[in-house]
Specification:
The protein is of the alpha/beta class. The chain has 2 domains: about 150 residues, Medium-chain alcohol dehydrogenases, catalytic domain (Quinone Oxidoreductase, Chain A, domain 1), CATH 3.90.180; about 140 residues, NAD(P)-binding Rossmann-like Domain (Rossmann fold). Helix content is about 30%, strand content about 25%. It contains 11 helices and 15 strands. α3 packs across α10 and α9 crosses α10. The radius of gyration is 20 Å and the shape is globular. GO terms for molecular function: oxidoreductase activity.
């Protein structure tokens, strides 16, 4: 029997249930993966609440990414072998003991990562890559302002931005989160409750402002970001955990600035070439030890609601993983 977290009614994480099912036979072209760890992302919370752009038919199992070992290969499935250690990319379905997927959904697990790190790598770092490289086109020496730098995508943006030669200003809500951001390369640290970040950015840049803003928070944070940007700035909209912000067109015009939406997964579905280039780079940087997710919490599968609450309450630093054994 296979355990899976099941959403039968949209709502809070506590409405989910851990259920058991028999393993289903493989169809031609499919493979079975024993999941060892699954990564949590904020879209998982939104999806079970019915607030995400993707709305799977009920019932469904949440979870967008996992890591594990290939245990069975169906007829016509190519390019994979039993025993391969892999990352599994899914739109939902990862919060379970096993996944039945196609080889195209599998990526080799970096040898430098354990299963929890592998299961929390591609979504967060893939979003940061797409934001900073494909959309923001960040250049060495530019000032990168990262909001929510203690979160999964924010911390990934700190890492990648620093690796690409940017001057990174990290903002977060606690000293603990900022300490982790500093350990991943942040040059300047700003705690929201100690100094308005717009004032801090102006102080740090001698009034010039940030060239690129990485914003998974939205709301007032997004609106205040428009008041501390440099000429030609790119404001990257990653999400809206803090609410929906309004773009003041007069401020954008005066600064010659751009607001760019970031949807890493959809970009790949529209243009698969982008995904191949991104994946190759992320795997190479992982193997070289340049990037590594910070997994602050590893919880057993049955603690799925507690794990999701860590994201909702912003208590995670980096990533949270569900462990299957």
């Amino acid at each position: 029997m296979v355990r899976a977290v099941v959403c039968r009614t949209l709502g809070e994480p506590e409405a989910l249930r851990l259920e058991e099912f028999p393993s289903r036979p493989l169809n031609p072209g499919e493979v079975r993966v024993a999941i060892r760890a699954a990564g949590l992302n904020f879209p998982d919370v939104l999806m079970v609440a019915g607030q995400y752009q993707l709305k799977p038919e009920l019932p469904f199992t949440p979870g967008m990414e996992a890591a594990g070992e290939v245990t069975e290969i169906g007829a016509e499935a190519k390019g994979v072998a039993v025993g391969d250690k892999v990352i599994v990319k899914m739109r939902h379905g990862a919060f379970a003991d096993e996944a039945v997927v196609t080889p195209s959904q599998l990526t080799p697990k970096p040898s430098t990562f354990d299963y929890a790190e592998a299961a929390t790598y591609l979504a967060g770092h893939g979003t940061a890559y797409h934001a900073l490289i494909d959309r923001g086109r960040i250049e060495p020496g530019e000032v990168l302002l990262v909001h929510g730098a203690g979160g999964g995508t924010g911390l990934a943006a700190v890492e990648i931005g620093k690796m690409l030669g940017a001057i990174v200003i990290a903002t977060a809500s606690s000293d603990e989160k900022l300490a982790i951001a500093k350990s991943r390369g942040a040059d300047h640290l700003v705690r929201y409750d100690r100094e308005p970040f717009r004032d801090a950015v102006k102080r740090i840049t001698d009034g010039r402002g940030a060239d690129v803003v990485f914003d998974p928070v939205g709301g007032q944070v997004f609106e205040d970001s428009m008041r501390c940007i440099a000429w030609g700035a790119r404001l990257l909209v990653i999400g809206f955990t803090g609410g929906i912000g309004s773009a003041k067109t007069n401020l954008l015009l005066i600064k010659g600035a751009s607001v760019l939406g970031v949807r890493a997964g959809e970009a790949v579905r529209k243009n698969p070439v982008l995904g191949a280039v991104r994946l190759k780079a992320l795997l190479q940087w992982a193997e070289e030890g340049k990037l590594r997710p910070n997994v602050s919490h590893r919880l057993p599968l049955q603690d799925y609601a507690k794990a999701m609450r860590l994201l909702i309450d912003r208590k995670a630093i980096g990533r949270v993983a569900l462990m299957m054994e």
